[in-house]
Specification:
Strand content: 15-25%
Order of helices and strands: HEEHEHEHHEEHEEHEHEHHE
CATH class of the largest domain: Alpha Beta
Helix content: 25-40%
Structural class: alpha/beta
Bound molecules: zinc ion
CATH topology of the largest domain: Udp-n-acetylmuramoylalanyl-d-glutamate--2,6- Diaminopimelate Ligase, Chain: A, domain 1
Number of helices: 10
Number of strands: 11
Amino acid sequence: MPTVHEIEQSLYAWAPRALAEEWDNVGLLVGSGAREVKRVLIALDVTEWVAAEAIERGADLIVAHHPLMNCTWHKVQNVLDDNAQGRLITALLKHDISAICMHTNLDAADGGVNDVLARTLGLEGLSMLNDEKIGRVGTLKSEKRLEEFLYDVVQYLGCQGVRYRDGGKPVRRVAVGGGACAEYIPQAIALGCDTFVTGDVKYHDFLEADGINLIDAGHFETENPVCAAIETYLADKFPRLETVRSTSHKDVIQYYMK
Ligand SMILES: [Zn+2]
């Protein structure tokens, strides 16, 4: 069976560490590199419920997208049992479960988060949206009305709903940015895109995005499709490894419509 370290190195062969943003924290973050892995659980985040699922399903390793510690939203200084993050890391260690996180390096990688998102939405002829290689631009086979495209986004990404601003254009040339990529709206406009799909779009981003259809399809929904790509990759590289996708991890954001 492959070791945690071998799996980490194999993931780096796909999504090199050098592609990660400077502030990011990627790679093996918890556990033991020497440990052999029989079963790996793949999830977008290492949450409390994903850790519980890994324990229940007997996984030796979790491969996730978002770093579970020492990043902008989990500034871990200590591992104590008086907070949820400390309890999560403690539970993983107690059960000999390692965690590997592939974040902005997987956003940028060929066949990573953004390529998967673009292809899931039916885009072809993909190119880069920006120098960081985060985000892609592609073209639909044929032009669609915005309403039709919104329907497709919801269907293909499994969204409960989307927030959007109608830019008054049909949809053909589309930019995508998995996660929170509203900062790249000006690039999408400059590259002649009529539509931009991302997540976590703020009020002022919507206000300022003039002349482009702007769609907030959700952070989770725009990134979660990469989990299937991680599974396919690992199953191909390590045929004896059991790969399982998380069934417990879903978007915690819901919509209540009046
Ligand atoms: Zn993200």
